[in-house]
Design a protein that fits this description.
The chain is α+β, with helices and mostly antiparallel strands. It is about 45% helix and about 20% strand. The protein contains nine helices and eight strands. Strands 1, 2, 3, 4, 5, 6, 7 and 8 form an eight-stranded antiparallel β-sheet that branches. It has two domains: about 5-170, Jelly Rolls (Sandwich), CATH 2.60.120; about 225-285, Arc Repressor Mutant, subunit A (Orthogonal Bundle), CATH 1.10.10.60. The protein has helices at about 105-110, 125-140, 150-190, 200-205, 210-220, 225-240, 245-255, 260-270, 275-285; strands at about 10-15, 30-45, 50-55, 60-65, 70-75, 75-80, 85-100, 120. Strand 4 (about 60-65) and strand 5 (about 70-75) form a beta hairpin.
Length: about 290
């Protein structure tokens, strides 16, 4: 299913005065669609509105909420909450659908855990989400007919609820991946002085090589190779300081097979040769 906003008029449909059949707790006050929208920088402080930003000529939407800047890829959802300063500008044309509620509903919606933090996040326009948006747009042309406003209240709420679930699912996935990275990091700390079978380690954590390196890059500033190298050097420093083992023996213990390479790497990292490091440490200890 494709969302084609090129055939949709820029519409703002007020619904506060439409009589409802059912007393749904979150009746819509207004719903609207936006096509090729641009807007100068505007500050909102007392508006309760949910906007689904479908697409834009820009890659990122920039929102400044209570002084904090959020740059969010499209498509995304932004929620304006009364009492918060929410500022943004639309410098390149974008398409969106929005629906607003009476500001005095903010407290009850907050109590119902209907506000996310931060109140802007990336979403996926799945077939189900597109279908819900199409349903709302279709209902808009019948808004004054019996029971239609009630259906719009429910349809908008279902759509927003789905987008909230999508956000939580994404957060749980991020947490799940981070747990895997922590598990791999722990493995590195235990096995850094051994030959690590990266392919097996990655498979054991149900990752592809590509996804592992992508997620590790977010997890650590060092590549896996440099991370292991740092662990080896740190252990070498410890062994040089607290034992009288030969330097070449220590290099072997931390799995540096090329002694000359180990010495060069050590000096580059610490500014001293391993023997100079041992002597300096011994001098500091008064030995």
């Amino acid at each position: 299913m494709k969302l084609d906003f090129s055939k949709i008029e820029w519409t703002a449909l007020p619904l506060a005065d439409v009589k409802r059949v059912v007393k749904f707790p979150y009746p819509l006050m207004e719903i609207g669609t936006i096509h090729n929208h641009v807007m100068r920088k505007t500050l909102f402080t007392n508006k309760l509105e949910i906007t689904i930003r479908i697409s834009s000529a820009e890659k990122l939407a920039t929102d400044i909420i209570d002084g904090i800047t959020y740059n969010t890829p499209y498509p995304n959802v932004a929620v304006k909450i009364p009492g918060r300063e929410h500022q943004y500008a639309v410098s390149a044309p974008r398409d969106a659908i929005y629906f607003s509620y009476a500001a005095d509903l903010a407290d009850s919606m907050a109590e119902a855990n209907l506000f996310a933090s931060p109140p802007v996040w990336t979403v996926k326009l799945t077939t189900g989400v597109k279908h819900m948006i199409h349903e709302l747009i279709e209902l808009m042309s019948h808004s004054r007919e019996y029971g239609i406003a009630d259906r719009m209240d429910l349809a908008a709420f279902r759509l927003y609820e789905e987008l909230l679930f999508m956000r939580h699912d994404s957060q749980h996935q991020d947490e799940f991946i981070e747990t895997k990275m922590q598990r791999i990091e722990s493995y590195f700390h235990i096995h850094f002085n051994q030959e690590i079978d990266f392919d097996k380690l990655i498979r054991d954590n149900a990752l592809s090589r590509r996804s592992f390196f992508r997620h590790w890059k977010k997890h650590s500033d060092l590549s896996p190779k440099l991370y292991l190298q740092e662990l080896k050097l740190q252990e070498a420093c410890r062994l040089i300081s607290v034992t009288d083992k030969q330097i070449n023996e220590i290099a072997d213990l931390v799995n540096f097979r090329d002694f000359a390479y180990f010495c060069a790497l050590f000096r580059k990292r610490y500014g001293l040769t391993p023997l100079q490091y041992r002597k300096q440490h011994a001098d500091h200890q008064g030995i």
